[in-house]
Structures are given as structure tokens and as C-alpha cells.
UniProtKB/TrEMBL annotation:
The lineage of its organism: Bacteria, Bacillati, Bacillota, Clostridia, Eubacteriales. Transmembrane segments: none annotated. It comes from Anaerobranca californiensis DSM 14826. One of its GO terms (biological process) is L-histidine catabolic process to glutamate and formate. InterPro entries: Amidohydro-rel, HutI, Metal-dep_hydrolase_composite, Metal_Hydrolase. PANTHER family: IMIDAZOLONEPROPIONASE, IMIDAZOLONEPROPIONASE-RELATED. This is Imidazolonepropionase. Belongs to the metallo-dependent hydrolases superfamily. HutI family.
């Protein structure tokens, strides 16, 4: 199939395939007004102004609308079962998130529901979310396990992710997060659970590219996280870490030291952690939806990170507890209002920098010759309009590998 998108206000995000946008370059949209994108067999063949259009191309006139790369959501807990709206009410009444977890609720409540669900049930619930994501412009999503906390259910979650990847237009990138919480069976023996997770690594390896750990006070310590992640590296996993989310534990320093592809959350990161990230290739994946939904006064120190040169990506953190939303456009609004990102930076953080945080910038994240033709046409003519007019969906059409899917 050969398509020519003409008259687009194209945010190409070009020029950052080898290294992400950081510092003064963060938010460089590579805007091309009245531009053309030629797509052939699912790939971008050419991008430019006044390109000659061969006669065998079908012309799609986007009439001055904004065209962006497909959005990439690099941190979600897509596959899980059930929901936790009861805890929502408790949290509104003032009960802290970590207290709910200590009492066997929170993540552990989703673990109970996910363990009981069949693969079919998991797929049914996740498909709905994936459809929502696609309708809002997401063409690649990361999916973490971590609501099993035993081999059987972790595998069930990862298999669901693999099936969705095959059957759904959105690309689903699996991450093994066996170390998401200490299961009740190991409450008195957390180190025993660390060993269990390590035993799972070679078995789950064929289902997941990344390994992640929830490094947090009262969950997995820096030492336990390091042990799991270094073992994972030996098995060939790429690494991610939930770091410095609630209290500072020096998780960011660990991420930089062991070369995690990304360190995520980072609300409580300290100055040394910021320095270490700035001097590393590790991408900081920020999740302002989680701060918002947990009614936290704390947001990640994004401005300090930008000033120091940390590369920033954004994600929804879609999950049943701390952030039940699939909407990346709402997350852009929260990032602008609370992290003080410009709309252009928020878009870069959901495209090219998000691609880097999944080690996928070689084939996506920007509109450039040779990359996969994942494109979003927004029903507006500029990037600022998306987070400004908030809470709704601005997508007019989504193309995945050059095929209109929405
Ligand atoms: O990224 N922080 C840990 N894990 C998830 C929350 C999962 C849940 O509440 O179910 C997060 O926010
Ligand atoms: Fe998370």
C-alpha cells in the first residue's frame, strides 16, 4: 500500500534516533508546515515539503492538521484483572496508598483478582484497554506483569501480553515485574521471595524483553533490586526500575550504575540521583498521572532534571490502583501543569524519548525515512492545543504500519 499524506503540520521529531532529546534540545518538534509524508508497505519512504508524489500513491489530504509519530506509552500495567474503586474512596478519605498495601490491599488486591482470572478473562479486559489506548493515539505500549507474584500467574500475564501483541494493531512490549510486591506467602521471608523471582527469570525470559523491580522502602531494597536486576541482565533482559517513587532510596543511582534503560517515577530522587541520570544513558520516565491520582503534593523535579540534562519520557502508568487511566493526552496536560513541561516537550516525551526508554528509537518515535509508519492525525493544527483543551480525545485518525486502524 502506498499513501501520501499531504498538507500536514508535521511534528517530525527528527534527528534524535541515536540519542534522546535533552536539555535545550528537549521539545524540538522538527515542525514542517504543509509537509508531505510518503508511506510504502508500512514504512516511511520520504518526508518533506513539495515532494513529488508518484501516480500510484493514494493521496490523503489532512488539511493542515497536526501529524505526529504514533504515541509510545513506555510504562503501563496493562494486563491485570478487576479493579479497585473501593480503595479509591478510602484514599479520598485520607488513607495512604502504602498503608492500604501493608494491610493486604493495593497491589495485593489486584494480585488476588489476577490469580483467579482465566487467560481469556485477562485478554478480554486488556483488549478493551488496548482499544482505548489506540483510539487516543498510542501505537506502542509497554506491559508489565507483577500481579501474579508466582510463576503461574506471571506467565499468564506475559502470555496475554504476547497474544495481544500478535492480534492487536498496537505493539505490546512485555516487561517481567515479578518483583512488584512481596506476596502474602512470603511476608515473613522477603529474601525468600527475591530468590523465587530469580528462579523465575530463565523461565519467563522468552516472554519478556525487560525486567523491572519496584525498588521502594518496605517493598524491595536497593540491595535486593540490584541482585534481581543483575541476575536478569545475565539472562539477557534489558533493565527498568521503579525508583524513588515515595521515599528517596537512591534507586536512581542504582539505575545509572547498572545501566537500566529507564528509571521510572523519581518523585523523591535526590540531587546526586539527578546528576547520575544526567551522566548516563538511562531515561527518566515520569508519571504525573500517578502523583495526581494519589493526591500527592510531590511531582518529579522535572525542571531540575531538564536543567541538568536528564532525558525525560512520559507514560500513563495505566494500572488499577495508582493510575487507572489509558489517556496519554490527559497525562500531557498533567505534565504541563505540574511538571511545567511545554506541550512540545510533552509530545517529545511521549514519542522519541519514549522510544528510547524502550530501546526502540531505531525504528519508531519520529517521522523519518525508514521508520515504521505509525502516524497520528490530530483534529487541531498545533501541539499546544492538545494539553490545553484537556480531558478529551483529539485524535482524528491513527495509522499503524501504514494501515488506518482508527
Ligand atoms: O507504577 N508503584 C508500583 N506499581 C504501580 C502501582 C500498581 C498498583 O497500585 O496496582 C505504579 O504506580
Ligand atoms: Fe508502575
Amino acid at each position: 500500500m502506498k499513501l501520501a499524506f499531504v498538507n500536514g503540520n508535521i511534528a517530525t521529531l527528527q534527528g534524535y534516533t541515536l540519542s534522546p532529546q535533552r536539555g535545550e534540545n528537549f521539545g524540538d518538534l522538527g515542525l514542517m508546515e504543509k509537509g508531505t509524508v510518503l508511506v510504502e508497505d508500512g514504512y516511511i519512504k520520504e518526508v518533506g515539503k513539495d515532494l513529488p508524489i508518484p501516480s500510484d500513491y493514494q493521496i490523503i489530504d489532512v488539511q493542515g492538521r497536526l501529524v505526529t509519530p504514533g504515541l509510545i506509552d513506555p510504562h503501563t500495567h496493562l494486563v491485570h484483572y478487576g479493579s479497585r474503586e473501593r480503595e479509591y474512596t478510602w484514599r479520598i478519605q485520607g488513607k495512604p496508598y502504602m498503608e492500604i498495601l501493608k494491610e493486604g490491599g493495593g497491589i495485593l488486591s489486584s494480585v488476588k483478582q489476577t490469580r483467579r482470572a482465566t487467560l481469556e478473562e485477562l485478554l478480554k479486559q486488556s483488549r478493551k484497554s488496548l482499544d482505548r489506548m489506540l483510539s487516543m493515539g498510542i501505537t506502542t505500549v509497554e506491559n508489565k506483569s507483577g500481579y501474579g507474584l508466582n510463576l503461574e500467574t506471571e506467565l499468564k500475564q506475559l502470555k496475554a501480553g504476547q497474544i495481544l501483541n500478535k492480534e492487536h494493531p498496537v505493539d505490546v512490549i512485555n516487561t517481567f515485574l515479578g518483583a512488584h510486591a512481596i506476596p502474602l506467602e512470603y511476608k515473613e521471608n522477603p529474601d525468600g521471595y527475591v530468590e523465587e523471582v530469580i528462579k523465575m527469570l530463565p523461565i519467563v525470559r522468552e516472554y519478556a524483553q525487560f525486567c523491572d523491580v519496584f525498588c521502594e522502602e518496605g517493598v524491595f531494597s536497593v540491595a535486593q533490586s540490584e541482585r534481581i536486576l543483575l541476575k536478569a541482565k545475565e539472562y539477557g533482559f534489558k533493565l527498568k526500575i521503579h525508583a524513588d517513587e515515595i521515599v528517596p532510596t537512591k534507586g536512581a543511582q542504582l539505575a545509572a550504575r547498572i545501566r537500566c534503560v529507564s528509571a521510572d517515577h523519581l518523585l523523591a530522587v535526590d540531587e546526586e540521583g539527578i546528576e547520575d541520570l544526567a551522566n548516563s544513558k538511562t531515561i527518566a520516565v515520569l508519571l504525573p498521572g500517578t502523583s495526581f491520582n494519589l493526591m500527592s503534593k510531590k511531582y518529579a523535579p522535572a525542571q531540575r532534571m531538564i536543567e541538568k540534562g536528564v532525558a525525560i519520557a512520559l507514560a500513563t502508568d495505566y494500572n488499577p490502583g495508582s493510575c487507572p487511566t489509558e489517556n496519554p493526552q490527559l497525562i500531557m496536560t498533567l505534565a504541563c501543569l505540574n511538571l511545567k513541561l511545554t506541550p512540545a516537550q510533552a509530545l517529545a516525551a511521549f514519542t522519541i524519548n519514549a522510544a528510547h526508554s524502550l530501546d526502540l528509537a531505531h525504528d519508531r518515535g519520529s517521522i523519518e525515512k525508514g521508520k515504521i509508519a505509525d502516524l497520528v492525525i490530530f483534529d487541531c493544527d498545533n501541539v499546544d492545543y492538545i494539553p490545553y483543551h484537556f480531558g478529551i480525545n483529539h485524535v482524528q485518525a491513527v495509522y499503524k504500519r501504514g494501515v488506518k486502524v482508527c
